[in-house]
Design brief:
Layout: H1 2-14, E1 43-45, E2 50-54, E3 60-64, H2 69-78, E4 90-91, E5 94-95, H3 97-106, H4 116-119, E6 124-126, E7 136-139, E8 150-158, E9 161-168, E10 172-177, H5 181-186, E11 187-192
Helix pairs in contact: 2-3
Protein backbone atom coordinates (compact mmCIF):
# COMPACT_ATOMS: atom_id res chain seq x y z
CA UNK A 1 0.00 0.00 0.00
CA UNK A 2 2.87 2.39 0.82
CA UNK A 3 4.33 1.85 -2.66
CA UNK A 4 1.01 2.75 -4.28
CA UNK A 5 0.71 5.94 -2.22
CA UNK A 6 4.33 6.83 -3.04
CA UNK A 7 3.78 6.28 -6.78
CA UNK A 8 0.56 8.32 -6.61
CA UNK A 9 2.40 11.22 -4.96
CA UNK A 10 5.11 11.13 -7.61
CA UNK A 11 2.50 11.13 -10.37
CA UNK A 12 0.74 14.14 -8.82
CA UNK A 13 3.97 16.09 -8.51
CA UNK A 14 4.81 15.52 -12.19
CA UNK A 15 1.52 17.13 -13.18
CA UNK A 16 2.04 20.10 -10.86
CA UNK A 17 3.57 22.63 -13.22
CA UNK A 18 3.29 21.61 -16.83
CA UNK A 19 2.35 23.61 -19.86
CA UNK A 20 2.30 22.78 -23.52
CA UNK A 21 2.48 26.39 -24.69
CA UNK A 22 5.02 26.87 -27.46
CA UNK A 23 6.74 30.10 -28.32
CA UNK A 24 9.06 31.38 -30.98
CA UNK A 25 10.88 33.48 -28.37
CA UNK A 26 14.06 31.56 -27.48
CA UNK A 27 16.33 34.19 -26.01
CA UNK A 28 19.76 33.40 -24.66
CA UNK A 29 20.09 33.22 -20.90
CA UNK A 30 20.32 36.68 -19.41
CA UNK A 31 23.53 37.50 -17.59
CA UNK A 32 22.09 40.23 -15.38
CA UNK A 33 21.71 39.24 -11.73
CA UNK A 34 19.67 41.50 -9.49
CA UNK A 35 20.37 41.01 -5.84
CA UNK A 36 17.49 40.90 -3.33
CA UNK A 37 17.20 42.89 -0.14
CA UNK A 38 20.11 41.12 1.53
CA UNK A 39 23.44 42.96 1.46
CA UNK A 40 26.00 41.54 -0.96
CA UNK A 41 29.49 42.37 -2.14
CA UNK A 42 28.02 42.98 -5.61
CA UNK A 43 25.92 45.93 -4.48
CA UNK A 44 26.53 49.46 -3.21
CA UNK A 45 23.97 51.86 -1.74
CA UNK A 46 24.02 55.44 -3.08
CA UNK A 47 23.08 58.60 -1.19
CA UNK A 48 19.76 58.73 -3.12
CA UNK A 49 18.76 55.35 -1.61
CA UNK A 50 19.33 53.48 -4.87
CA UNK A 51 21.35 50.31 -5.06
CA UNK A 52 24.04 49.80 -7.69
CA UNK A 53 24.16 46.10 -8.53
CA UNK A 54 26.99 44.73 -10.64
CA UNK A 55 26.03 41.91 -12.96
CA UNK A 56 28.27 39.00 -13.94
CA UNK A 57 30.08 41.30 -16.41
CA UNK A 58 30.69 43.94 -13.67
CA UNK A 59 28.35 46.38 -15.42
CA UNK A 60 26.42 48.52 -12.92
CA UNK A 61 22.63 48.18 -12.80
CA UNK A 62 20.77 50.73 -10.66
CA UNK A 63 17.88 49.33 -8.66
CA UNK A 64 15.86 52.02 -6.89
CA UNK A 65 14.79 50.99 -3.41
CA UNK A 66 12.00 53.58 -3.59
CA UNK A 67 10.27 51.38 -6.20
CA UNK A 68 7.57 49.07 -4.89
CA UNK A 69 8.71 45.61 -3.87
CA UNK A 70 6.56 44.14 -6.67
CA UNK A 71 8.60 46.01 -9.30
CA UNK A 72 11.86 44.65 -7.88
CA UNK A 73 10.46 41.10 -7.74
CA UNK A 74 9.49 41.30 -11.42
CA UNK A 75 12.92 42.69 -12.36
CA UNK A 76 14.53 39.80 -10.49
CA UNK A 77 12.33 37.28 -12.38
CA UNK A 78 13.30 38.81 -15.74
CA UNK A 79 16.92 37.72 -15.26
CA UNK A 80 15.73 34.15 -15.91
CA UNK A 81 14.16 34.94 -19.31
CA UNK A 82 15.45 32.39 -21.81
CA UNK A 83 16.38 29.79 -19.17
CA UNK A 84 15.30 26.28 -20.18
CA UNK A 85 12.47 24.45 -18.43
CA UNK A 86 13.46 21.95 -15.77
CA UNK A 87 10.88 20.26 -13.56
CA UNK A 88 11.63 21.28 -9.97
CA UNK A 89 14.28 23.76 -11.16
CA UNK A 90 15.06 26.99 -9.33
CA UNK A 91 18.29 28.21 -10.96
CA UNK A 92 19.64 29.50 -14.28
CA UNK A 93 20.46 25.92 -15.24
CA UNK A 94 16.73 25.16 -15.34
CA UNK A 95 13.48 26.56 -13.96
CA UNK A 96 9.86 25.52 -13.65
CA UNK A 97 6.91 27.92 -13.32
CA UNK A 98 6.45 27.73 -9.58
CA UNK A 99 10.23 27.75 -9.05
CA UNK A 100 10.48 31.04 -10.95
CA UNK A 101 7.79 32.66 -8.81
CA UNK A 102 9.04 31.11 -5.56
CA UNK A 103 12.65 32.26 -6.09
CA UNK A 104 11.65 35.75 -7.27
CA UNK A 105 9.59 36.40 -4.14
CA UNK A 106 12.08 34.65 -1.84
CA UNK A 107 14.86 36.98 -3.04
CA UNK A 108 12.89 39.80 -1.37
CA UNK A 109 12.05 37.88 1.81
CA UNK A 110 8.51 36.89 0.77
CA UNK A 111 8.10 33.15 1.23
CA UNK A 112 5.40 31.40 -0.81
CA UNK A 113 4.53 27.71 -1.08
CA UNK A 114 6.68 25.93 -3.67
CA UNK A 115 3.88 24.38 -5.78
CA UNK A 116 1.55 26.44 -8.00
CA UNK A 117 -1.71 24.94 -6.69
CA UNK A 118 -0.60 25.77 -3.13
CA UNK A 119 0.46 29.29 -4.15
CA UNK A 120 -3.12 29.77 -5.36
CA UNK A 121 -4.22 29.63 -1.71
CA UNK A 122 -2.00 32.59 -0.76
CA UNK A 123 -2.78 36.27 -0.84
CA UNK A 124 -6.03 37.84 -1.95
CA UNK A 125 -8.08 36.77 -4.97
CA UNK A 126 -8.62 39.68 -7.39
CA UNK A 127 -10.44 40.28 -10.67
CA UNK A 128 -8.31 39.96 -13.80
CA UNK A 129 -9.12 43.55 -14.79
CA UNK A 130 -7.56 44.75 -11.49
CA UNK A 131 -4.19 42.97 -11.76
CA UNK A 132 -1.01 44.98 -11.36
CA UNK A 133 2.71 44.34 -11.69
CA UNK A 134 3.74 41.62 -9.22
CA UNK A 135 0.37 39.86 -9.03
CA UNK A 136 0.11 36.15 -9.82
CA UNK A 137 -1.96 34.50 -12.56
CA UNK A 138 -3.00 30.87 -12.19
CA UNK A 139 -3.95 28.42 -14.92
CA UNK A 140 -5.42 24.97 -15.44
CA UNK A 141 -3.73 23.66 -18.55
CA UNK A 142 -5.78 20.49 -18.99
CA UNK A 143 -4.17 18.12 -16.53
CA UNK A 144 -6.07 15.02 -15.48
CA UNK A 145 -7.00 16.28 -12.02
CA UNK A 146 -8.22 19.64 -13.38
CA UNK A 147 -6.21 21.42 -10.69
CA UNK A 148 -4.26 24.63 -10.96
CA UNK A 149 -0.93 23.52 -12.39
CA UNK A 150 0.68 26.67 -13.80
CA UNK A 151 1.54 30.12 -12.45
CA UNK A 152 2.83 33.33 -13.99
CA UNK A 153 4.03 36.64 -12.54
CA UNK A 154 2.46 39.81 -13.97
CA UNK A 155 5.14 41.96 -15.63
CA UNK A 156 2.81 44.71 -16.83
CA UNK A 157 -0.87 45.56 -16.98
CA UNK A 158 -1.65 48.56 -19.16
CA UNK A 159 -4.87 49.37 -21.02
CA UNK A 160 -6.18 45.83 -20.59
CA UNK A 161 -2.99 44.27 -21.97
CA UNK A 162 -1.55 41.91 -19.36
CA UNK A 163 1.95 40.46 -19.81
CA UNK A 164 3.32 37.80 -17.49
CA UNK A 165 6.60 35.93 -17.08
CA UNK A 166 6.50 32.17 -16.58
CA UNK A 167 8.28 28.94 -17.45
CA UNK A 168 6.82 26.65 -20.13
CA UNK A 169 7.93 23.09 -20.87
CA UNK A 170 8.70 23.84 -24.52
CA UNK A 171 10.07 27.39 -24.48
CA UNK A 172 11.48 27.80 -20.96
CA UNK A 173 11.12 31.15 -19.21
CA UNK A 174 9.26 33.61 -21.45
CA UNK A 175 6.94 36.60 -21.28
CA UNK A 176 3.45 35.95 -22.67
CA UNK A 177 0.20 37.84 -22.99
CA UNK A 178 -3.02 36.77 -21.28
CA UNK A 179 -4.79 37.61 -24.55
CA UNK A 180 -3.11 34.68 -26.33
CA UNK A 181 -5.84 32.09 -26.93
CA UNK A 182 -4.11 29.29 -25.01
CA UNK A 183 -3.61 31.38 -21.87
CA UNK A 184 -7.00 33.06 -22.09
CA UNK A 185 -8.77 29.68 -22.20
CA UNK A 186 -6.73 28.12 -19.37
CA UNK A 187 -6.74 31.16 -17.03
CA UNK A 188 -8.34 30.36 -13.67
CA UNK A 189 -7.69 33.17 -11.22
CA UNK A 190 -5.47 36.08 -10.21
CA UNK A 191 -4.09 36.72 -6.74
CA UNK A 192 -2.30 39.60 -5.04
CA UNK A 193 0.45 38.60 -2.63
CA UNK A 194 1.86 42.02 -1.70
Amino acid sequence: MKKIVFLFLILISFSSCKSTKQSKNKNATASKMIIGTNSNENEEINADNSIIVKDSNSNPEILNTAEPKAFNIVEYAKQFEGVRYKWGGTTKSGMDCSGLVFESFRAFNVILPRISRDMAKSGEKIALKKVETGDLLFFKTGNRRNDINHVGLVVSSEDGSIKFIHATTNAGVIVSSISETYWDKSFTEARRIL
